[in-house]
Amino acid sequence: MRGNRRGAGSQPRRSQKARRPERPPQAESLPHSGTRGFTLLEVLVATVIMAVAISGLLSALTTSMQNAGRLTDRDRAIMLARQQMNELLVAHPEPRDTALQGAWNPTLTGGRPCGWNGVITLFEAPVGALEGDPALDRVHLEVWCGDGAAKRTFTMEGFRRGVVSAADAAKERTP
Fold first, then answer.
1. What is the pLDDT confidence band of residue 16, given thresholds at 50, 70 and 90?
2. In what order do the strands lie in the sheet with 134-145?
3. DSSP tally for the chain: helices H, then strands E
4. Phi, psi at 24, each rounded to 5°
């Protein structure tokens, strides 16, 4: 038994030609064979859907940023207009029927050119009023912001207590 190199119970060797070719492993015998990967087509479709969704989201974000900027500019202009209206309402030495105008510093307006035009007129006085009698003045304020096609304007009106001037009293007496 010296010549027998095989261990006990082993089968005789087959020659190279007699061996059966090994079969590739079947899908059922592989681990995780029940889970399937994505095909290239599925990945492309998912990528296109995500691209459409992201572009829609970015478009909505851009629109809302523009709206927010526009509202900020509008709020800033309204704040400046109210401030100017308050100044005109308490500025009694301002003459009536005279065009008033001014511009705000661009640092206050976010770099945009903004200004105002105003006029104070006699709104109402008692019949037969004399010089120095109380009267009601109308303050008309027009505010503009921007230039060219982007120029936006809005108006404000306010009323203040005034006095009848000599010229107003003379107009009142003249039929």
1. low
2. 100-103, 114-124, 134-145, 152-163
3. 2, 4
4. -65, 150
CATH code at 40-173: 3.30.1300.30
Q: Which two tokens stand for residue 114?
A: 């903004």
Q: Which residues contact 114 (CB under 8 A, 6 or more apart)?
A: 77, 80, 103, 104, 108, 143, 144, 145, 146
pLDDT digits (tens, 9 = 90+) for 142-163: 999 988 888 889 999 999 988 8
Alpha carbon distance 77, 71 (integer Å): 10
Domain ranges of the chain: 40-173
Q: Does residue 62 sit in helix, strand or coil? A: helix
**Cβ neighbours of residue 129 under 8 Å, at least 6 residues apart?**
135, 164, 168, 169, 172
C-alpha 38: how far from chain center: 40
